[in-house]
């Protein structure tokens, strides 16, 4: 009996220890490093070469920009026009996928990228390894939502691999209305009035997040401070930051509790954050 009681205590202790270790591990996770439009410093943005390079550099996630075409397909490109990346000016929403796929969107970044095409969202999804993630930025209006939900469901991605982001609050609201299981973040940059007041204010951000049913807020790195972030997280919202290419800035936002750090140089930022952890 005594031996059995002793063994039971040891088992209970071991179980408790495992739970504590698991909890510590969960909270010790680094912020997610998100490759902005892929590894876009070294490859043409929003293309398969950029996303592939991001995975090779060790990114935890990729971020891509998505528009609807004239024929209702979803493609990965930042601007509403193709001029920046192809030197030919087509409006994405007024152009058929077949015609968009005739454009070379890699040559501007270097001869070795000649022949790179605008990818469909399904092609981008196909690059994502297990345990990695994608941040899908909606660049169209809310009319993209039905097709986007369809594409996500037709992919092999799990719920935790997908985050929806947009500056368009109505698009976030429309997406959450039909697919609330996926995380969605509202995007905004900041400016300061002459009085020093920050626009949007933290109260304004909280009101928007509540109204559109967003799970969190993602902002540019400028002007925001730790107290702003603490106010958001205290209300149960996540905070994410973009676009951070300097290690010092990345370390600051890591210490402020950012859930993800989006960067054009994922390999470099990962290396510098890892080096900062090592004892000197």
> What is the CATH architecture annotation of the largest domain?
Alpha-Beta Barrel
Q: Provide the succession of SSEs.
A: HEHEEHHHEHEHEEEHEHEHEH
CATH superfamily placement of the largest domain:
Phosphatidylinositol (PI) phosphodiesterase
Q: Which class of the largest domain in CATH terms?
A: Alpha Beta
Distance from N terminus to C terminus (CA atoms, Å) equals: 52 Å
Number of H- or I-type helical stretches: 11
Largest sheet data: 9 strands, mixed
How many structural domains does the protein architecture include? 2
How would you describe this structure to a colleague?
It is a single chain. This protein has 280 residues and is α/β, with parallel strands linked by helices. It folds into 2 domains: 1-30; 31-277, Alpha-Beta Barrel (TIM Barrel), CATH 3.20.20.190. The chain is built from 11 helices and 11 strands. The protein has helices spanning 2-27, 48-56, 83-86, 97-100, 121-125, 145-154, 169-178, 202-212, 226-234, 247-255, 266-277; strands at 32-36, 61-68, 74-76, 133-138, 162-166, 183-188, 191-192, 198-199, 216-220, 238-242, 260-263. The strands form 2 sheets. Strands 1, 2, 3, 4, 5, 6, 9, 10 and 11 form a 9-stranded mixed sheet that branches. The chain has a two-stranded antiparallel sheet with strand order 7-8. It is globular and about 50 Å long. Residues 5-28 have low confidence and may be disordered.
């Amino acid at each position: 009996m005594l031996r059995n009681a002793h063994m039971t205590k040891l088992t209970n202790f071991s179980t408790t220890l495992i739970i504590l270790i698991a909890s510590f591990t969960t909270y010790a996770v680094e912020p997610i490093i998100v490759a902005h439009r892929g590894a876009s410093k070294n490859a043409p943005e929003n293309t398969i070469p950029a996303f592939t390079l991001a995975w090779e550099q060790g990114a935890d996630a990729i971020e891509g920009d998505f528009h609807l075409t004239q024929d209702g397909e979803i493609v990965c490109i930042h601007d509403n026009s193709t001029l920046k990346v192809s030197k030919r000016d087509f409006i994405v929403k007024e152009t058929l996928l077949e015609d968009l796929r005739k454009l070379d969107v890699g040559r501007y970044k270097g001869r070795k990228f000649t022949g790179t095409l605008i990818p469909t969202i399904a092609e981008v999804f196909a690059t994502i390894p297990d345990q990695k993630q994608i941040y899908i930025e909606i660049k169209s209006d809310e009319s993209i939502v039905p097709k986007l939900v369809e594409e996500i469901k037709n992919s092999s991605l799990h719920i935790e691999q997908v985050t929806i982001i947009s500056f368009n609050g109505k698009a976030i609201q429309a997406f959450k209305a039909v697919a609330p299981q996926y995380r969605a973040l509202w995007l905004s940059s900041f400016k300061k009035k002459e009085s020093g007041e920050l626009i949007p204010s933290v109260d304004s951000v909280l009101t928007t997040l509540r109204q559109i049913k967003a799970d969190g807020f993602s902002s540019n790195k400028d002007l925001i401070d730790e107290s702003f972030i603490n106010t958001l997280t205290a209300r149960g919202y996540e905070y994410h930051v973009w676009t951070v290419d300097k290690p010092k800035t990345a370390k600051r936002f890591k210490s402020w509790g950012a859930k993800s750090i989006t960067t054009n140089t994922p390999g470099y930022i990962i290396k510098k954050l890892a080096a900062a952890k090592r004892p000197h």
